Amino acid sequence: MRAIFETLFDIFYLLTVLSVGIRMIRNSKGSAQFQLFGWMAVVLGAGDSFHLVPRALALCTTGLDSYAFQLGLGKWITSVTMTVFYVLLYYVWRQRYHIQGQKAVTWAVYALSAARVILCMMPQNQWLTNHSPLSWGIYRNLPFALLGLLVIVLFYRSAKEHHDTAFRWMWLTIVLSFGFYIPVVLWGDVIPVIGLLMIPKTCAYVWTVLIGYSAMKAEYKKAD
Hints:
The protein is about 75% helix and about 0% strand. It is globular and about 55 Å long. The mean pLDDT is about 90. By secondary structure, it is mainly α.
């Protein structure tokens, strides 16, 4: 039952974010903000597919242990694409609120992203085995969490300052995604049931994407 439910959920998730992302790119009408948001959604879905497709195959066939290499490679790729996701989200913030300058913030985003990617590339992660050490899971997620925290603060402050009702909950979707993700990193291998938190974490990302899509539709409807 779990295999069927999780597989159907993952299919729904991937189809949703990819289709919404492609639609936003095609219908952005030259808006850099919504085009970036569309590419952000595509990066999210495409990156996650490298992990979720092998996971679905494993759950529905011979089990997760038989797909250790594929699952590890998928997690490795996803760890990088999720970093790109937040860099793109940062530039969505700049476009939406017409941010100029703030080079220190941009450098912080790039420095945290680079640290995250470099740490993900270290062989000590042992991605392609069933024994990825917890310590390296923490190391590589520290700059990622700081990057997420930075984006949370930026969207919270700007949405409040500009009375931006369309994006007023963007910060919360990121808080929820990290709130569900961190326990999995820390205790997922010890308490397997904690892995189920990845489902609400995924829902938070769907909410992120739908916020952008809804904002695009509302703005274009208002313009017409």
